From TrEMBL:
Entry protein name: TrkA family protein
Its membrane topology: Multi-pass membrane protein
Signal peptide: none
TM annotation in the entry: 26-55, 89-113
Alphabetical UniProt keywords: Ion channel, Ion transport, Membrane, Transmembrane, Transmembrane helix, Transport
Highest taxon above the source species: Bacteria
Gene3D superfamilies assigned: NAD(P)-binding Rossmann-like Domain
Chain segments annotated as coiled-coil in the UniProt record: none
Location(s) in or outside the cell: Endomembrane system
Domain named RCK N-terminal: residues: 388-521
PANTHER family named among the record's database cross-references: ION CHANNEL POLLUX-RELATED
GO cellular component: endomembrane system
Keyword Nucleotidyltransferase set for record: no
Length: 627
C-alpha cells in the first residue's frame, strides 16, 4: 500500500495558519492581538532603554520606563520632551508602532460598529413586544391586513404589529410607510427572516403574540405548503408555549385543507380563499350589491360583529331580541352548540347564550323599549321561484371549477353557462342543474365579445387572469374587457348585469367608469376576513356559518316583498316583515345610489330602527335567509 507523503510545515506556514485562525475569531480577537503585540514591543524597547541606560539625567526603573513608553505609544506628541539621541530613537520606534496600532484599532472598531448597525438594520434582533399581532410572510394582502388591524387597535392604549418575512427589512419598511402612512397608535415592527426556520421564528416572539397571521408567498409554486409548514413550525417547535396559539392562515386549494387542519388542530382557523371568492362571485352575480355588503360587514370601519350576553332577554324570543336594540342588528345566537344564524323567530333565549350583533361600537349595544311595527304596511306579495339562468363567464382561472359548482347550487334546472377563454377548460362536470359550454377566444378581443350576443345573458362574470400574470396586468385585461362591454351595452341600448373580479383595490376606481354592477376585490375581501379572525377568533365561526353552503346566507331581496311600495315606515316594521318570512333583516339598498361611492353604493347596514324610510320598486332589503 502506498503512503501519502506530506512536507513538514515550515515555521512561517505554522505562523500564518495560527494568524488566520486568530483573525477569523472576530473583533475581540483582533483587539487582543494588537494589544499583545503592543505590550511585547513596549516591553522590549523599555528593556533596551533600561539595560543600556539611555535616560540622560537619572536612570529610571523598568516600570517607569514601560509607563513612559506606553504614553509615547498612545500620544505621539510626548516625543517632543525626550532628550538624547538613543532615547529619542527608541521612543520613536514605540511612537510609530503606537500610531499604527491606534489607527488599526480605530479601523477595527469602526468596521465592527458599521457591521453591527447593518445587522440591526437587516432586522435580526429579537422582538421584545407582548400581546402583539404577528404576521408571518409577505404578499399583496399585507397592506390591507395591517390597515385593518391598525383600525381595530385604535381603542388600545398601546399595540404593535410584528412582521417576519424573508425580504429586505429596509424595503419592507419603506413599502409599509408608503401604503400605511398613518398606523395610529400601532407600532409596525419588521424583521427579516424565514418563517419556516425555528431560529428566525424565535426572533418574532411568537409565544408572546396575541394572534398569528400566516400569509402565502406570492409567486410560489405551492403556496399552501409554505403556510402549512409555517403552522407546523409554530405548533411543533420545541420552544412553543404551553397554552394554545391563535393562528389564522389562508389556504388557496380545498385539497390541502385536511393537511392544514391536521397541523393546526384547534389552534388554527383557516380561510379557504378560492372557495370564498367563488361563493361571493356567484352570489353577487345573482344579486347586485352583495360584495359591498360583505365589505361593509368585514372591515373595521363602520359596523362590525360583536357578541353580547343580555341577561334581561333570557326567556324572551329571538324576535323580541331583534326589536330590543335601536342601534344594533341581531343576526343570530352563540350557544353551547355553536353559531346559529337566523334562528326561528319564536326561539327562546337560554341562560348563558350570547347574541351575535352588527353594531358600530360595543357602546351602541344597549337595549331600548321595543318599537311598534306598523302591521298595515307589511306586504303580502309572494316570492316566485327563479327561471333557468343563462350565464356568461369571461376568462378562466383556478377558481372556475369551485365557482361553477357553487352556481349549480343556486340555479334552476335547465340553466346554462358559457365560458370564454383562450385555452381549453378542464372537464368540470357533470352538474345537477347546469350545462357548461366552452367558447375559445380572447376576452379582450372586441369581435369575440360581439359574436357572443352578450345582451341575451342574464348574468356576466368577468374572471381575473390571476394564475399566470401579475395583479396589475390581470386587472388591466379585466378593465379592457369591461370597457368593451360598456360600449357594446351603450350601442345596443341594453342593461347588462356584470360582475367583475379585481385583484388590486386601487384599480376599482378606474374600473368604475365601466359601470359594471359589482366589483369583487378578492385580495381585499380575503384580507378583511383574515384581519377579523385575527382580532376575534369567534367571528370566524360566524363567517364559516355565513359562507357555508347550508344554513342561512345574506340575500338582497325586492323591498316590495316586505313593505308596500312607497310607504313611509321604520326598520322595526321591516324586521317584523322579514321575521314573518323566516328571515332576519339587517339593512337595505337604495337602488338610486347603486353607483354612488359616497353613499356606499346605496348599501345601509344596521340602520337605526326608529328612523323613517321609504322603499320604492327596485330597492332591496338585506336579509339573512335560507335559500
Amino acid at each position: 500500500m502506498n503512503r501519502m507523503h506530506f512536507d513538514r510545515p515550515t515555521a512561517g506556514e505554522r505562523f500564518r495558519y495560527w494568524f488566520d485562525g486568530v483573525m477569523s475569531k472576530g473583533m475581540i480577537a483582533l483587539i487582543a492581538l494588537l494589544a499583545l503585540g503592543s505590550v511585547v514591543l513596549i516591553a522590549v524597547v523599555s528593556l533596551v532603554i533600561t539595560v543600556l541606560g539611555l535616560w540622560p539625567d537619572e536612570q529610571k526603573s523598568f516600570d517607569e520606563t514601560f509607563w513612559s513608553s506606553l504614553m509615547h505609544a498612545l500620544d505621539s506628541g510626548t516625543l517632543g520632551g525626550d532628550d538624547g539621541v538613543g532615547l529619542r530613537a527608541a521612543q520613536l520606534v514605540v511612537t510609530v508602532a503606537g500610531i499604527i496600532v491606534v489607527a488599526s484599532l480605530i479601523s477595527i472598531i469602526s468596521n465592527a460598529f458599521d457591521a453591527r448597525v447593518e445587522q440591526l438594520r437587516k432586522g435580526h434582533s429579537r422582538v421584545l413586544e407582548q400581546d402583539h399581532t404577528l404576521i408571518l410572510g409577505w404578499n399583496s394582502k399585507i397592506f390591507a391586513i395591517v390597515n385593518e388591524i391598525c383600525l381595530a387597535n385604535q381603542s388600545r392604549r398601546s399595540s404593535a404589529i410584528v412582521i417576519l418575512a424573508p425580504g429586505d427589512k429596509i424595503e419592507m419598511e419603506e413599502a409599509l410607510q408608503a401604503k400605511v402612512p398613518d398606523p395610529g397608535r400601532t407600532r409596525l415592527i419588521v424583521r427579516s427572516g424565514d418563517p419556516l426556520d425555528l431560529g428566525d421564528l424565535e426572533v418574532a416572539s411568537p409565544r408572546a403574540a396575541r394572534s398569528i397571521v400566516i400569509l402565502a408567498p406570492d409567486g410560489a409554486e405551492d403556496p399552501d405548503s409554505a403556510v402549512i409548514k409555517a403552522a407546523l413550525a409554530l405548533t411543533n417547535s420545541p420552544h412553543r408555549k404551553q397554552g394554545r396559539y391563535h393562528i389564522v392562515g389562508e389556504i388557496r386549494h380545498s385539497a390541502n385543507m385536511d393537511a392544514a387542519r391536521l397541523v393546526g388542530r384547534d389552534e388554527a382557523d383557516w380561510v379557504l380563499t378560492d372557495e370564498l371568492i367563488s361563493r361571493i362571485t356567484v352570489q353577487t352575480s345573482r344579486q347586485s350589491g352583495l360584495s359591498e355588503v360583505y365589505t361593509e360587514l368585514l372591515d373595521f370601519a363602520g359596523d362590525e360583529l360583536y357578541f353580547s350576553e343580555q341577561t334581561a332577554l333570557t326567556g324572551r324570543t329571538y324576535l323580541d331580541a331583534q326589536q330590543a336594540f335601536a342601534d344594533a342588528a341581531v343576526i343570530g345566537v352563540l350557544s353551547a352548540g355553536g353559531v346559529l344564524l337566523n334562528p326561528p323567530a319564536a326561539r327562546v333565549m337560554q341562560p348563558g347564550e350570547k347574541l351575535i350583533l352588527i353594531a358600530e361600537d360595543d357602546s351602541k349595544i344597549r337595549t331600548a323599549p321595543a318599537g311598534r311595527p306598523d302591521m298595515s304596511l307589511i306586504s303580502d306579495l309572494v316570492h316566485h321561484d327563479d327561471a333557468p339562468d343563462r350565464a356568461l363567464v369571461l376568462g378562466c382561472n383556478n377558481s372556475l371549477g369551485s365557482m361553477l359548482a357553487e352556481l349549480d347550487r343556486y340555479v334552476a334546472p335547465g340553466s346554462t353557462v358559457t365560458v370564454v377563454s383562450p385555452a381549453a377548460i378542464p372537464d368540470l362536470g357533470p352538474y345537477k342543474h347546469l350545462s357548461v359550454t366552452h367558447v375559445p377566444g380572447d376576452t379582450v378581443n372586441r369581435s369575440v365579445l360581439e359574436s357572443l350576443r352578450v345582451h341575451e345573458f342574464d348574468h356576466i362574470v368577468v374572471l381575473s387572469d390571476k394564475d399566470d400574470t401579475s395583479p396589475q396586468r390581470a386587472d388591466a385585461k379585466t378593465l379592457i374587457t369591461l370597457l368593451h362591454l360598456r360600449e357594446m351595452a351603450n350601442g345596443l341600448g341594453a342593461e347588462l348585469n356584470v360582475v367583475s373580479e379585481m385583484l388590486d383595490d386601487r384599480n376599482r376606481e378606474l374600473a368604475e367608469v365601466t359601470k359594471a354592477d359589482d366589483f369583487i376585490v378578492s385580495d381585499k375581501l380575503i384580507s378583511l376576513m383574515l384581519s377579523q379572525t385575527a382580532e376575534n377568533e369567534r367571528t370566524n365561526e360566524v363567517f364559516q356559518a355565513l359562507f357555508s353552503s347550508t344554513g342561512s346566507e345574506i340575500y338582497l331581496r325586492p323591498a316590495d316583498l316586505y313593505i308596500k311600495p312607497g310607504a313611509i315606515t321604520d326598520f322595526h316594521t321591516v324586521v317584523e316583515a322579514a321575521s314573518r318570512r323566516g328571515e332576519t333583516a339587517i339593512g337595505y339598498r337604495i337602488i338610486a345610489d347603486k353607483r354612488n361611492k359616497e353613499r356606499s353604493y346605496g348599501i345601509t347596514l344596521n340602520p337605526t330602527k326608529r328612523d323613517q324610510l321609504t322603499l320604492v320598486p327596485g330597492d332591496k332589503v338585506i336579509v339573512l335567509a335560507e335559500s
